[in-house]
Amino acid sequence: MMLTKPIKIYFGLIVLFALLTALNVFLPQGDLIEQLGVELPASKPIMAVAIFFIMLIVYGSLGFVGLTLSKKLGFAGLWDKKVSNKQRFLNPLIVGVIIG
C-alpha cells in the first residue's frame, strides 16, 4: 500500500497524540494519585511507554480502518480541494457548540 499524503498526515497526528498522552503521566495532576495513597502498577517511565504504545496501536489501527473505509464509501479526503474551509471547520464547530 502506498503512503499517500492523507495517510502520512494521519500517522503523524496519531504519533503526536500518543506522545502527548504519554507525557501526561509526568504532569502535576499525576501526583494526585500519590496523594490519595494509591500506588501505580509500575514506575512513571514504564507507564508512559505502555500508554504510548497502547494509544498508538489502539487508536492508530481503529483510525486507519476508518480512514480506509471512508475512501471506499466515497467520503471526501482529509484535505480534499472540493471541500471549503467553511465546510471543513466552521460547520462542525457550529454543530458541536449546539449539541454541546
Secondary structure: helix percent: 55-70%
What value does the average pLDDT take? 87
Q: Rg from C-alpha positions?
A: 18 Å
Number of strands: 0
Form type: extended
Contiguous uncertain segments of 5+ residues:
none
Instruction: Compute the separation of the termini in Å.
Output: 39 Å
Largest sheet: none
Q: How many helices? A: 4
Percentage of residues in DSSP E strands: under 5%
How many individual domains? Answer: 1
Run of helices and strands: HHHH
Structural class: mainly alpha
Keywords: Membrane, Transmembrane, Transmembrane helix
Transmembrane segments: 7-26, 46-69
What does this 3D model show about the protein?
Keywords: Membrane, Transmembrane, Transmembrane helix. This protein has about 100 residues and is mainly α. It has one domain (about 5-100). About 70% of the residues lie in helices and about 0% in strands. The protein contains four helices and no strands. Helix 1 packs antiparallel against helix 3 (about 45-75).
Short précis:
The chain is mainly α and 100 residues long.
Topology:
Layout lengths: L4 H19 L7 H5 L8 H30 L11 H15 L1
Helix pairs in contact: 1-3
